Amino acid sequence: MAAMPPLPASSPILLCCLLLTGALCPAARAARFACNATAPRASTCQALISYAPPNGTATATLAAVRALFQLRSHRALLAANGLPLSTPPTAPAPTPLRVRLPCLCSGGAGATFQRPTYRVRAGDTLDAIARGAFAGLVTYQDIAAANNVSDPNKVAVGQQLWIPVPCSCDPVGGQPVVHLTYVAPAGSSVAGIAQEFGSAEETILAVNKMPDAKGLLAGQVLDVPLRTCGSAISNTAIDRNLLVPNGSYILTANNCVMCGCSSSTWQLDCQAAQGLSSSFCPAAKCGDMFLGNTSSTSSCESRTCSYAGYTNSTSFAILTNITTSNTCNAGMAPMAQPAHSSAFRLEPAWLRWTELVVSLHVVLLCLGYLRQG
């Protein structure tokens, strides 16, 4: 058997570079969000995706983001981000942008249902699609597994791929929430993310099965539960599972009603959708009070005509009822940030101590190898 030819002089250097690159640039890890709901209605929900398009990509307008995620209406994108209904599709997309998508629980995990899909273009790779077009919300392994792609480096131009963004429908602490899929940027911390979204650090750590806040990595995909506003919606209404987090609104009752959520009261504020209600929208009133109107009955008590859902049992009807509230008591505050929460900040991967130690060992190994040569 012929002996193997000696390695060229540049091979040790090349090997060291490859080892060092691998140490400094850890591969993206697939995210799996727990989603254990099994009841027919509980196993599906509307989840939110936080999308921050990479610099230089074409998704710079609201219309482009809507097309990428195959959203059924421009208004749905505006509602998820609390933007005025008059905002045109050509408006620049804020970064990050919230995208509301259907989520399906199956096998203990959740993924966006049927959407989004992506048509492969010339020069595309699964990794470029995952990191570029979808900004790291998924990994190329996720896309390959969901579409039965045996070789991630070989995808056909024109091939339609389902992009399984992780999501969840599970309640947290016994309370209904809206789950936000969020990619942690470099320089962020679990404490900072919790404060930004009105959550608690312990909640984010528990939901994501993280032992401590120091384990957060740049680019890690997190499940961030968002508190939702309470409502007076009837259990018999079609939209009885309506969940609206702070800073957004939803169009319901065939676009006749717009319901928003504010952290000042943590109660749904629903009114007739101005400029959208067509002639078939029934009147929404509580006696002589219109939907959303409030009147004071005493110095500390007020009455509101609240939205109670809609039905189509015999005919399209918008349900309402009178709710009373004590205006002398402050509304519930968002989930507080614990005082003892760690403020450990996430640094870029190449500054983390573990990577520095590994890199030092690689450098010493390479120097020893070169000295022997």
From TrEMBL:
Keyword Signal: yes
Stored SUPFAM superfamilies: LysM domain
Signal peptide location: 1-30
PROSITE patterns, A to Z: LYSM
Superkingdom classification of source: Eukaryota
Keywords (A to Z) from UniProt: Signal
InterPro entries, A to Z: LysM, LysM_dom_sf
Domain LysM: 116-163, 180-224
Name of the protein this chain belongs to: LysM domain-containing protein
Species name: Panicum hallii var. hallii
